[in-house]
Amino acid sequence: MTDMLREQTEVEDTETKAHHEHHQSGLKRWLFTTNHKDIGSLYLMFSFAMFLVGGAMAMVIRAELFQPGLQLVEPNFFNQMTTVHGLIMVFGAVMPAFTGLANWMVPMMIGAPDMALPRMNNWSFWILPFAFSLLLASLFMEGGGPNFGWTFYAPLSTTFSPQSTGLFVFAIHIMGISSIMGAINVIVTIINLRAPGMTYMKMPLFVWTWLITAFLLIAVMPVLAGAVTMVLTDKYFGTSFFDAAGGGDPVMFQHIFWFFGHPEVYIMILPSFGIISAIIPAFSRKKLFGYSSMVYATASIAGLSFLVWAHHMFTTGMPVAAELFFMYCTMLISVPTGVKVFNWVATMWRGSLTFEVPMLFAIAFIVLFTIGGFSGLMLAITPADFQYHDTYFVVAHFHYVLVSGAIFSIMAAAYYWLPKWTGYMFDERLAKWHFWCSIVSVNILFFPMHFLGLAGMPRRIPDYALQFADINAVVSVGGFLFGLSQLIFLAVVIKCVRGGEKASAKPWDGAEGLEWTVASPAPHHTFSTPPKID
Amino acid sequence: MSKPSAPGQEKRNNQRSVWSLVGLAIAMFGFAFALVPLYDVFCDITGINGKTADAPAASSMTIDTQRQVTVEFVAYINPGMEWTFEPEVRRIVVNPGQTQTINYAARNLTRHASIGQAVPSVTPGLGAQYFNKIECFCFNRQPLEAGESAQLPLVFYVDPELPEDIHTLTLAYTLYNAQPTATAQTQ
Amino acid sequence: MKNRQLIWGSLVAAMTLPVTAETETMRLNMTEGVTEVSQRVFDLHMTILYICVVIGIVVFGVMFWSIIHHRKSKGSVAASFHESTKVEILWTIIPFVILIVMAVPATNTLLAMEDTSESDITIQVTGSQWKWHYSYFDEDVEFYSLLATTSAQIANERDKRENYLLEVDRPLVLPVGQKVRFLITSQDVIHSWWVPDFAVKKDANPGFINEAWTRIDKPGIYRGQCAELCGKDHGFMPIVVIAKPQAEYDQWLQTTKVAQQQAYEEEQRLLAMEMSLDELMELGEQVYNTRCAMCHQVNGKGLPGAFPALAGQGLSIDSAKKLEHISIVVHGRSGTAMQAFGPQLSLKQLAAVITYERNAWGNSTGETVQAAEVQAVLNGEEL
């Protein structure tokens, strides 16, 4: 056995030497890399760039909505901004950011030398800038870019859509392929490459949440591909999936889309749960409370997410029995989600708490995500939903869970692991400015939207009745401030990459996990030999 | 795996996992398309989207003389369809099981022949599966010569099994152009 | 320094743009509405909200207590517990029970809302880009309902008046105290008919029919908006309902029927008269700018890739295609966003707008279209 191990190590050492002799630098390094850390960095940098682009579109939206009347943009362009803002944030910012974190951290957390399929990993990333170039280019086509909302309901997206729809479909297909390849990579890595002794119930929760997320991705991204293909054929090839004239049904589009769409939003939050479950224990200096129930709760949320899609469709004219079924299932999801929140709080309870920036973002996540969860529970109640649906109440809900939820968790993760990635501590003072500016502005931006919705302001409109003016002005100011605050984050990251106080292998004394056993910055190759797990 | 494996074994494990996951992805893509007939079947069984059957039904054996149901008729003409199209009666009261005939009047207003296709929709949706059409002009495309008029018949009965809590059924037809000409697409 | 002045100056200037005649204060909460259903929905909403607030206070309270009292800087030493099946079961069961408590009134309210039987009157509501059409099922009254706010107000050229974007030319009039049933569909894309004061929101699906109902308790004016993205003017197709006491409603219905009939007879009488090119152009420009320019643009150039240009090309300059031109305006075009304007405009308006399209922007066919010609196409008669 030892002979075999020694032989394996020798083989690996020789391979490593040979590899280093051919180590690229500059553009070629990044273009051809198969290293999970490099690819993780590429994903993260790409996602931040997309975050800024999508954010700029949000600024256009908020600038137009700053006052009643049409001041800056035409309604058709406004619709393109809301559509592409949504597409970029979902597919270009949040999902790639989580994939970048998975790439960087999952192999190290399970003691593996890299992802299982390193070359496919490279492809998974590099098709993304291509896909988003297509999407952004479509804005400059005749007739304009996609303007039918990121949910692209038919027949607005088929018979009544601009010619750029074909490009939009192609871009979505490429993004889907990237996600599916990434998900396959994650699953195979976790199933096959765990170090000896790393049983499933010893894996960090970030690994668990990504394992479950990856299964969700493989289950539903192909369904999105199907939906988007049907839109393509309805528009260009004479099919009538969603056209009553040919025996089709526009509501069927919504069923197919949301069958993907609902698990998709859990895809965008499950990794967050993993991140928070790493950070809270680290800064409470206390083990995560209820590890196994956290795993089961995550799995329940994922399973339940397949049974709730029509809660996005309560006003389409479904029979009562269906409305009740979806109402009950949706309400049910709050049980495992609540368990997770309680477990985080129980982890903090009687811990020894410090409040470095990662912890600040994690605590903010718990409060603000939960507020988003409450509005979600309210939306689940069908009769009440008839008043909330397609209003700013929904916009408030999903921005709370996605911005002060998912995005904040990504920032928490970035601050938590930046010392590991760069070898330097970030500027804590500047980072605290980022945190406080962000948390104040994000609430000025999104909290009043609850009131706008309750007062009757619909979504996706470029102009509004006068009574909504004052609150919209406040929201817009919040938006601009939030956007500006993210530039502080950019500054912190750039500064940290360049240098600073040297970081030790484990800069956070309460942190646990294999990633903290390697040096900071993490060597290009880690765990070429599997670590010993007790 | 929890124990160390030789590199070859690891590669085989990886490949096996990859192919099963790729298979799953392909199966889910197929599932998306399978949702189309599945949705139709589900709606046929439950009538939830108000779609009625495409094929003629047999007459009813029984008539429920104790019960009355109101049936309303509406017509919509899709833009581009250059016909008039309206029901001859707006509302009748029937006994479930009793066969009724009503007509929709149509007239081609143009100087050329065209073909119409009427697409039915029933509300409440759950009542659709109890609206049995023995003969319906919506089963076929309807051609009309230039200026021609027609009386399009609908022979139906309301199934006696109609749930107790449904008292009114509304049948809407939308008339579509079933013969789009070359110029019907956006320029 | 100069930059900062510029920024502040712009902000101040932006805030003083001619915006509002008078900004009303917005309500912060959902409306209780004017129907029994809307009141029940409001009560349900408040119940759920209170429960969420209480849970939030408890959970965040515990967390903030911990943040204050369990900090390392205060000397807190971490405990070692990290699981408790008993506690986990407790905080799984308690939320589950709370959900059941919420689900019971929710179910009852929903069952009440979806019962459209035994209605007194039926209104057909048809959405299209970007307006609503109402038809009183048992009467011969029907009309389109378009946004009445002028584009000058929207473009900030005039001060915005009260009910900006929430006013229409012809509101839906309904009786108080009667069960009103709505039959809802669409002519093109999915729209959604929503009046918050009734707690009625139902999608208008093309080719399919939905129903909803309400019983209004109080006379008054109730305003709503389209609630499903339906294209560029989704924000510009409001709903206005005027609820009148029964007697007034009956009178309104009667008056409207008579007026409608009179308008039709007047139109028929005037068919024999011809309008001059100048008269047609004047009226036509007005109709075009309010009903056609949203897609075909004021300059007639359309939107390449979306809406065809009328200026300098196609049917509008081809003398052989005048009949086809009239036909398309009157009946619309399948498979495109071009609607049938025959039912929407008077014969005179149709004649004028088609004349305008054939003579404006340098099209100069010199041709006129008269109301009688339009009527012939509408009726399918030989010209």
From TrEMBL, chain B:
What keywords are assigned to this protein?
Answer: Cell inner membrane, Cell membrane, Copper, Membrane, Signal-anchor, Transmembrane, Transmembrane helix
Q: Where does this protein reside within or beyond the cell? A: Cell inner membrane
Fetch the Pfam families from UniProt. Answer: CtaG_Cox11 (PF04442)
Q: How is this protein situated with respect to the membrane?
A: Single-pass type II membrane protein
User: Which Gene Ontology BP annotations are present?
Assistant: respiratory chain complex IV assembly
Q: Does the keyword Magnesium apply?
A: no
Classification via InterPro entries = CtaG/Cox11_dom_sf, Cyt_c_oxidase_assmbl_CtaG
Side of membrane Cytoplasmic, spans = 1-12
Q: Which residues lie on this side of the membrane: Periplasmic?
A: 36-187
Entry GO terms, CC: plasma membrane
Record flagged with keyword Cell membrane: yes
Q: Which residues cross the membrane?
A: 21-39
Q: What is its main location?
A: membrane
> What is a single molecular function from GO for this protein?
copper ion binding
Q: Which HAMAP family match?
A: CtaG
The family line of this record is: Belongs to the COX11/CtaG family.
* Task performed by this protein: Exerts its effect at some terminal stage of cytochrome c oxidase synthesis, probably by being involved in the insertion of the copper B into subunit I.
Q: What is this protein called?
A: Cytochrome c oxidase assembly protein CtaG
Native organism is: Photobacterium chitinilyticum
The gene it comes from is: ctaG
